[in-house]
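Tutorial handout. Part one gives the primary structure; part two gives the three-dimensional structure as tokens.
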Amino acid sequence: MKNSKDKTSIAIALFLLFAMAISLVALPTANAQNTQKTYAFIGALPNPVGVGQTALFHVGITQQLPLGFSWTLSVTIIRPDGTTDTISNIKTDPTGGTGVTYVPNEPGNYTLQAHFPEQTYSGTLYLASDSAKLTLIVQENPILYHPGHPLPTEYWTRPIDAQLREWNTIAGSWLETRTRNPQVITDSDAPESAHILWTKPYTIGGLATGEKSFEMGDAYEGKWSSRMILAGRLYYTLGPYERPAWTYCVDVRTGENLWTKVLLDNRSISFGQILYWQSYNMYGAFEYLWVTVGNTYYAFDGFTGDHKATIYNVPSGTRTAGLNGEFYIYSINSTAGTMSIWNQSAFISMEGSWGSAFENREYNVSTGYYRTRNTDGSWSSWVTTGSTDRVQRAWINFTIPTALPGSIRAVKLWDKVFGLHVNNTHVITWGLNLNASKGTLGQLLFKETWNAPAEWTTGNLTATFCTADLNEKVAVLWIKENICHYCFSTETGKYMWGPSESEYYLNMYTRGVELPLFYDGKMYATGAGGIVYCYDLKNGTWLWTYEADDPYQEFLFGNNWWLMNMFIAGGKVYVGHIEHSPNVPLPRGGPFICLNATTGEVIWRVNGLFRQNGWGGQAILGDSVMATMDTYDLRLYGVGKGPSATTVTAGPKVSVHGSSVLVEGMVTDISPGTEGYARTARFPNGVPAVSDENMSDWMLYVYKQFERPADVIGVEVVVEVLDPNNNYYEVGRTTSDSNGFYSCAFTPEVPGKYTIYASFAGSKSYYGSSAETAINVDSAPAATPPPTPTPAPMTDTYITGFGIGIIIAIVIGFALLLLRKR
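Part two.
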């Protein structure tokens, strides 16, 4: 994988070099002798290179050619042991050169030489030539490549520097939204808590009068139905009947409004596009917002919302995206036995070979004409040169078998077309080839007939096509009355399994429109029954189920909340509560739930924060941020991991060794949504950062003014010090409270200056933060010795001694007197 990446990077770099060269050198012209001397060359990159690593040889001659022509060369490689490898039939591009790869498998010096045999072009004989010999040094140890950059551990925003290539795994887009069509997102992580980054009103919503709330569109006028995320920007158009129909562009990570416009005559965006364009002098991606009006496609700039290009008479059919973001439109006429694929990239690439000429142009697909916008905004005359070729090169037409039963159920471009017909007696599946390397385009890959069980007829069962996924290679049917599935292979067309175990009976109302999702060999299905079912696609068994219970019986139809799949991303399944034409007052506590896709474990659930819209805007995902509308208050929310701030103080600033020091501070949430008077008036010291376990209820409190949850805990703070001897160590851990406050005491070990660090490592809800302060610890003063007694004067000594002697004498005399009396 590493070699492949390096090889691609090197090839692109050399191609750029060649492209610059071709515009600077004259093309060949015939001379009087009809012969011309040539000069072959060879280069190697990198040199030296390690054993087993890919080396790119730059080979060719110094003479360029017109577009569409090439020279043929070969390369000989003398290995360190004297044996020879040969790379033959190397075709150059019009620059006269090209790149070819080679992987050496032993260390030592390799001798390289390019060979150009005689060739004729336009009546001139180009003589044979050999390049100078080049030594390729191959060493035992691999050479170093750029180490790359890790995924961010701090709060991040757009733009993402192009050098941070590894970040592509978290920087996904949601380029098109179809109602009730959930998606699997492979290039974006997803929120692991209900933490809100920002919020903004979509329109007036919430409580209106009495217990009545403002209308939110279900059914059938769902609000926020036009929405998409492209390169970190959320686009949505008010509607469907709002006039003027303002289109908003919002930073999906901050909620900042970037621009607002009315597109054409109150149109909404149909889909987004990131088109990678490669021409001789231009390499890069272009972002477009497409507004379709019938068969006319209008492209708008994603950064400014300005009109960029128009394509007239775009063919009708089904649109799909290619590897470079270009769109294809395919159509099948099974009666006539034909299939057509129109290629946007092939059509527009007929012009602009030297740059990005697609912008500021109008094209007509039918005629192949184009015209260019002048600097004053006017349009040039239609250019007809090459129009026929332009039209023809954009189309691929081929035949297919006629009278194929049923309908096309799924198409994977350059892979296959899958069709299926179902009735109460049989299921017919068929596949058509779209991979030229595997055979003729349009040829029949399989056609299978499966006889249905007698119960389908005798029981009057309703068997309908549910959905198909060509990546997971399955097509699924739904039996309404038995509330179960059958599954067929899209690779062979054969029956795989069914009937599955029956789901909850209320799903009979919803499975036809609330489609399952497929991911990693599993199917995820839910509906009005309020249970998420995870199926093993190999055999149809349930791997796990999750019941979205309603403990307060607010939902009138059942004990569980009616659910709908939103998306799968980062190994997590997101489902939300919807309801067809809900009554007012709305049932309280509608859940939004994130489940582990493998185990069904609840990662987070929030009740009453993000109630979904069945006919309009369900949650979408881009740049690892979930954007959704809540139908309780009709606001838009950005949900994801946000920034935090930590403060720290310590006191006393100067103390005496042996006494303790008190460290204290705050850890707060500084996401964009915490700004503004609505939040600062309630949280003048900042919105406290709280634990992931408390996040769902905390967000209801902070953003929806619900009652403050009890027993809220904050986040863990680690206190460390750098002591006077430059030793760094931890002195305490503590947890902030529901106000964001923390404190921790410690006793310094030695005198001197201490730098104190307080850090919050981060969580599923927040990126980490830290702060520092300093104190000084003075040495304790030396202990004071006990006072020395003052010596008595000598006279006192004498008198005292004399007095004591007199007393003793009296006592003795008194004793003798008593003895005599006896």
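Part three, for discussion. The chain has three domains: 2-139, 178-639, 644-778. The CA atoms of residues 368 and 389 lie 8 Å apart.
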